[in-house]
Amino acid sequence: MSITVVGSIAFDAVETPFGQRDRMLGGAATHFALAASVLDQVRIVGPVGDDFGDEEMAILQTRGSNVDDVERVAGGRTFFWKGKYGWDLNTRDTLDTQLNVFEHFQPKLSEDSQNADVLFLANIQPGLQLQVREQCEAARFVALDSMNLWIDIARDELLDIIGRVDCLVLNDEELRQLTEKPNLISAAHAVLEWGPSMVVAKQGEYGSALITADDFFALPAYPLHQVVDPTGAGDTFAGGFVGFIAKHIDQLHDHEVLRNAMAYGTALASFNVEQFGTEGLQDIEASAVRERVDDLWRFARFERMEVALVD
Amino acid sequence: MSITVVGSIAFDAVETPFGQRDRMLGGAATHFALAASVLDQVRIVGPVGDDFGDEEMAILQTRGSNVDDVERVAGGRTFFWKGKYGWDLNTRDTLDTQLNVFEHFQPKLSEDSQNADVLFLANIQPGLQLQVREQCEAARFVALDSMNLWIDIARDELLDIIGRVDCLVLNDEELRQLTEKPNLISAAHAVLEWGPSMVVAKQGEYGSALITADDFFALPAYPLHQVVDPTGAGDTFAGGFVGFIAKHIDQLHDHEVLRNAMAYGTALASFNVEQFGTEGLQDIEASAVRERVDDLWRFARFERMEVALVD
After folding, report:
1. CA A15 to chain centroid
2. Residue B127: φ, ψ to 5°
């Protein structure tokens, strides 16, 4: 099985209370691939500029991810994002966004990328997501991320592409904005009416929730004493989630597959936020990932005890 | 076993996107007692005014809660709070607070209330909480709630009382404010250094987390399609949590007791927020509570699946 991801490959400048980096590899496709590659073969689709070096390309190729469809745009510059986080890391200000090579990006997938069983449409312009979706007719599972910007300025296109995916992964406040429903469960069920069979609400430090027509599941974020840089946590989560599903594509409708997928996404995201940029995921050990999934298994369960109640 | 709760008994005026009430029974002790009484015998301590009627007193006495220590202050008026919630219920503005009979409240507990095994110090002035704590020397489990106001204006007294309880129950942002630690886990561990053996972080619609020196547990809020009025959700949660512990006071250090306590608190809080004020808890059925605890049991667990990982 293989997973195709299309999305941003970026240079990020990030300032958090724990330090800053002026230029490091980032982007949604990057973070996704670093996580998904722990589980399965990944093919990355996206543009980079002349300023994108061999060192960065080598990081993209971690654990064998394929970069044949990473398009080098001659004379172009790589997507750039600069942001600063507040003291508890729950707020962030975007200080600069330079689309650069993304401005005129027209995704052209190789045959191998088109034939992937699993497709992740990371957060980019919904029209581009639709173009990629149409090139991947064979995909058996397609997940989509987006953001408030597209809800504001490209709502119709976003609804189009949502109608053509199996899973919407979105921040919980954006789910409310998208559906204009203040309640998370109502908002998720509204999305299920539009086509997807599942919705994952990303809730930042509170973890994530999975909503299907007949099931609900929630996991806390992995408890850490220090979070250094949350950038890319959502995409890392998506990489673990989608990666686990890719490995179990024939059991897609088994709730336990989806729940384990949530646990792998959560565990991998915890490594991402412990260090800046891609540092946390580059050299990750399988045993460390398993240990955190085991921890989550313990942190999230209780055994029912009988108790007399007063009516 | 019995539980003594000291805290506000109030009239609330509440406006939410789903309606409004100009005057209904509220207050931390009220919501706590309505929940804890599902599990155990409750004794309520707090002042009310001349305006407090027999109908309200009857609600306090739901499921046999004892009101011998509810002090009627002649010529006084009952505590009053008025608030308005935003569209997603995650923000609220306090429009009016009238301390009234609470301004000169000096708690004097009857012998029976002093002898309770379990004590809940709901959110009131920390000095008053300390006075009550000193009257209940026999208590085997004491839990405490507070709020940002006391962190701001009575920090030393608050630290005093925190050092004399077993459990601090606090909103997660207030935990950060109290400890000046931006990270929830670090904040909770700072509190554990001060004396309590456990910290419960209330996280609103995201649920709650339990932190002890050697354990972590988190539960989502019960998923509801509509929340009507979140007022008192935290106190209702505390009532279920403390009530379950009171029923298992000899197994206090069993993690499963604490986890089930979290589940009962979460389930009871979900009934509270479905209706205005005390409506959701007044006529609750034991079978309905058990059903929601069973649901939470399912919503929060996964069974580990083996998967090959790439190092």
Report:
1. 21
2. -60, -40
- On whether the CB atoms of residues A130 and A164 are closer than 8 A, the answer is yes
Beta bridge partners of B82: B13, B96
DSSP string, A57-97: HHHHTGGG-B-TTEEE-TT---EEEEEEE-TTSS-EEEEEE
Q: For tokens 């792998």, what's the residue?
A: A264
Residue A87 has pLDDT above 90, yes or no: no
Q: Which residue of A has its CA nearest to B301?
A: A301
- Kindly provide the ipTM of the predicted complex, given to two decimals: 0.95
**B304/A272 Cα distance (integer angstroms):** 22
Nearest CA in chain A to B90: A182
Instruction: Flag if B207 and A206 touch (Cβ within 8 Å).
Output: yes
Using a pLDDT cut of 70, give the percent of chain A over it: 100
**Across residues B124-132, what is the average pLDDT?**
96
pLDDT of A1 over the 80 cut: no
pLDDT in tens, A114-140: 999 999 999 999 999 999 999 999 999
Chain B residues within an 8 Å CB radius of A304: 260, 263, 293-294, 297
Residues of chain A positioned with their CB less than 8 A from the CB of B267: none
Q: How many DSSP H helices and E strands does chain A contain?
A: 12, 13
**CB contacts, 8 Å: A300 with chain B:** 217-218, 300-302
Helix (H), strand (E) at residue A129: helix A126-135
Helix-strand-coil percent breakdown of chain B, rounded to 5?
40, 25, 35
Please give, rounded to a whole number of angstroms, the shortest distance from the CA of A75 to a CA of chain B. 36
Interatomic CA distance for residues A259 and A215, integer angstroms: 11
Using an 8 Å CB-CB cutoff, list chain B residues near A257: 305
In the block, tokens 């003291």 appear at A87
The residues near A180 (Cβ < 8 Å, ≥ 6 apart) are none
pLDDT tier at B25 (50, 70, 90 boundaries)? very high
Cβ contact, residue pair A218, B220, below 8 Å: yes
Query: Which residues make beta-bridge pairs with B71?
Result: B47
Contact: A293, B308; criterion CB under 8 Å: no
**CA of A255: which chain B residue's CA is closest?**
B302
B88 against B238, higher pLDDT: B238
pLDDT tens profile B215-238: 999 999 999 999 999 999 999 999
Q: Which residues make Cβ contacts (< 8 Å) with residue A291, sequence separation at least 6?
A: none
Looking at the complex, report in whole angstroms how far the Cα of residue B234 sits from the nearest Cα belonging to chain A. Answer: 17
Say how far apart CA B114 and CA B247 lie, in whole Å.
Answer: 18
Distance between CA A207 and CA B221 in Å, rounded? 12
Nearest to A260 among B176, B184, B305 (CB): B305
In whole numbers, what is the pLDDT of chain A averaged over residues?
96
Over 80: is that where the pLDDT of A236 sits?
Answer: yes
Q: What six digits make up the tokens of B101?
A: 């009979």
CA–CA distance, B302 with B15 (Å, rounded to integer): 39
Nearest to A201 by CA among A180, A214, A216, A223: A216
- Convert the pLDDT of each residue in B28-46 to its tens digit: 999 999 999 999 999 999 9
Q: Which pLDDT band holds residue A105 (cuts at 50, 70, 90)?
A: very high
Q: Is A3 left (phi over 0), alpha (psi -120 to 50) or beta?
A: beta
Helix or strand holding residue A113 (H, E): helix A111-114
